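Box 3.1 A note on notation
Throughout this textbook, protein chains are presented in two layers. The first layer is the amino acid sequence; the second is a token string describing backbone geometry. Keep the layers aligned when reading.
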Amino acid sequence: MNSKRIDEELLRELACNGDLYQIQILLTNKPNLNINSQNAINGWTALHWAARRNHKQVIEYLLEHGANKDIQAHDKSTPANVCNNDSLRQILEPITSDSKLLQPTTGEAANIVVPELHNLLKLDPYLEGYQDEIRRRYYVFQKILKQLEIEEQGIDNFTTAYKHFGIHINYQTNEINIKEWAPGAKAMYIRGDFNNWQEKQYPFTRDQWGVWRVTIPPLSDGSIAIKHGQAIKLLLEIANGELVDRICPWSRYVQRKEKATVYHDVFYNPSYEQIYQFKYTQPKKRDRLKIYEAHIGISSSKEEIASYENFRINIIPHIIKQGYNTIQLMAILEHPYYASFGYQVTNYFAASSRFGTPEELKALIDEAHKYNLTVLLDLVHSHSSKNIVDGLNMFDGTAGCFFHDNTRGFHTLWDSRCFNYLEREVMRFLLSNIRYWLEEFKFDGFRFDGVSSMLYHSHGIGHHFSSSYDEYFGLATDTDSFNYLQLANYVCEKFFPESIRIAEDVSGMPTLCRPLAEGGAGFDYRLAMAIPDIWIKLLKEKKDEDWHIGNITWTLMNRRSSEKNIAYAESHDQAIVGDKTIAQWLFNEQIYSHMSIFSERTATIDRGLALHKMIRLLTYALGGESNEFGHPEWLDFPREGNNESYKYARRLFYLSNDENLRYKYLNAWDKAMNDLEEEYKWLSAKNTLIIRQIEADKVIVFERGDRGLIFIFNFHGYNSLTDYRIGCSQSGKYRIVLNSDAKLFDGHERINNEQIFSTENIKWDDRPFSFRVYTPSRTVFVLALIDDKK
């Protein structure tokens, strides 16, 4: 028997045994395997066997991935005929004219109307051969919306569940109404400080959908029974009869006692006077994002956990001064383990209490809006903490509440749980979470964390994407997640059209950043995660003379012209302990001994200052996002391994303010780049033209924008180029508008900033005009047309 037949027989055996995980692995590794192959003896397919054994999840998975329920065995039986479960039989009924749209692999996908698919295919003709799958994904997305319209009174009502799930007060009666979804629980109670922790004083009642409700009447004096700030917990009786404490999934505020490891729910009901009232209008949607990535807790130079108030008072002015227009806040959703950088979320509706109160976070956001700053939230819907007592895991005593109840529900690399995105109540929870942060806190959008992990059954673990489109539209893709992301972006667009959504994706999934009407996922931007890696790799592994200029520019520009990217030289991912910041790689141990302006300017310091500025601007000019000044140390949060130290869990802002340290030059360069972009607005420019990239010279020259900006980089370690001819698209006179070798940035002043460059009618570098320049080693300078100066 050949290997193909062996694999087909294995698939049928796995389907018979109901082993979904192994089926997923097999089909991922064998994308061309015939899922509809028939046994030679009886003609049964894998779907026949799954149907006969009533393996619901296997049936659904096979159908989603092209299994044909019309195929007849040798005795003419279909999978529906051999199934003895009524509900499953309905799923397996042969296709009727009304349901053919679900089977794009048969060619019927042409019947699915994707309003602007023609535009997508025009922009990316390579997608032509995959339009059936694009149509199918769009069909599922639209089908869910229609179901919600019929069964949930529409998407508006569905995504405001945070207003009636969880704990709420009827202020007319002062009753407290509590509503929770826990289908696997046998009983539910609430207890806390308000009733001296009596266990069963307030029993809930359950409906047919697994939703539990209770009403707590007011006290005898008419006041609300639970007071603001009192500790509370849900008490659930799970299937084995055990009573377990849980935190309400919809809780707005959770805390822990000092040195405790487990959080408890806090009834959050501040007085009217304490509730923050927003004063300022949110900014309009920007087309040029200059993002300042920030973590509230480390936004202080002190060895402490900094606060929302500290950030509002001290850091927002710094961000404004440096010329950023967008703040991206990390680690806001509550997470018990501080060192996780906010990626092990337990409480999705609770702003982290270690930084202050929800009202103080609202004040921070409103203060940013006062200065027309956009504020984005780092949203972690890609996975969830596996914590049980204070998280979502095993909330009702079962592994399948909120998450997949098999191996698909566990992220082995991150040691966390994975959501069952298209389960109705999970959708309600997560989509309401999106609306909650936009509506209640007035965030202006999100960076969706871990999108690559969501999109693939393998979570992308050990997967080196080749950019072959087969990888994105085959069995390896988790289309449930893709459909969820479509729904998430739909909610943002429909109710908050000015919101911005960024996808953290390293895989390059096509259509991810295309409009929903084209069959895309609807994101505005993709985070270009490969760019920081190339800088670290070069600094870590290559000598300067071995840097391949062509590879650098290719990486920086390797994006579909139809999808917007945000580029960055480094972020928290590169600075976490175990790695180094760019400054650390460049300055090495001299970062601690030679950064004073009075200390010797060694070759290491000289090289580090030059390359730090060049790396930052090259990434900025060919991509998008910028970061703060070159920070000297990595990030390491307090943990057992470092004796709970806060030494490296802070930002040393005073370094850039010290007139005796060279960090002030890097900080000045940071501001100068932002100021130049603000004037010339190159981030929104459609045209970026590489004019010259010469390996021997280590020179990169490119034009960007409509206003005649020319960027000239010389990465050579010692070779300065005299009378070096540069081609250009526009004739006229050019002036220097930014120069890394200037005194302001601790340069060697080898270029005269007042020099004027006049073009000649000499064709060069495939450009109609050209001029000569002097380009010193390890220097970048930017030219602009004088006549266009405004």
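Residues 3-94 form a domain with the Serine Threonine Protein Phosphatase 5, Tetratricopeptide repeat fold (CATH 1.25.40.20). Confidence is low (pLDDT under 50) at residues 95-106, 625-630.
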